[in-house]
Amino acid sequence: MGMSSLKLLKYVLFFFNLLFWFCGCCILGFGIYLLIHNDIGILFRNLPSLTLGNVLVIVGSIIMVVAFLGCMGSIKENKCLLMSFFVLLLIILLAEVTLAILLFVYEQKLSKSVAESLTDSFQRYYSDNSTKAAWDSIHKFLQCCGVNGTSDWNITPPTSCPSGPEVKGCYVGAKMWFQSNFLYIGIITICVCVIQVLGMSFALTLNCQIDKTSQSLGL
Q1: 3-state class of 73 per DSSP?
Q2: What are the counts of helices (DSSP H) followed by strands (DSSP E) for the chain?
Q3: What is the pLDDT of residues 119-149, one digit of tens each?
Q4: How far apart are CA 76 and CA 11, in angstroms?
Q5: What are the beta bridge partners of residue 149?
Q6: How far is Cα of residue 3 from the mean position of the Cα atoms in its chain?
Q7: What are the residues facing 186 on neighbouring strands?
Q8: CB neighbours of 1 closer than 8 A, spacing ≥ 6?
Q9: pLDDT in tens, 29-82
Q10: Does the structure show a pLDDT above 60 at 2?
Q11: Distances (CA, A) of 18 to 11, 14, 30, 69
């Protein structure tokens, strides 16, 4: 019974981490694609490294490393690798909780920083082609115009702005987009946390099962 349980846990954890590793590859690839083709990050020169592309590249790389440790630790029944996998998952989980708390505590400062960055980049709309392309992309995606609305333009708004008497600003548009997708973001976040907890549980259980099997065999 002990050996069959060990084999079952070993392969469950292996395929779990293999799927996790492929997800990391997809996230990394998407992050690289955004770094090459997406220029939205130019709007936030105050936070040059906190672009979606950079974040996805870092997250994807971490997932791939952690999943690799989980795969090798489970298939080789290596307790050191399994505990390294467990500790890394625990650190990531604690970092996510800390980040969520910091975002909640400093929400006003973050909103102010985003508004200042948008206003600063808006001044360069006609002087920098990359900034112009980024703003045009935001106009079309969020169906907004300028930072606070069409009143930001001293002349006729660009063609990328939607037409209408009451067009919202992109700062308000971004907040509305986040609020409208908050449920989906929350569900995804909870699912990721549950997967991490399951991975940690599998790793600990397999580690204990290896000990029990070794003792029963007199190793």
Answers
A1: helix
A2: 7, 0
A3: 888 888 888 888 888 888 888 888 888 888 8
A4: 11
A5: 168
A6: 38
A7: none
A8: none
A9: 888 887 776 666 666 666 555 666 777 888 889 888 988 988 888 888 888 888
A10: no
A11: 10, 6, 19, 10
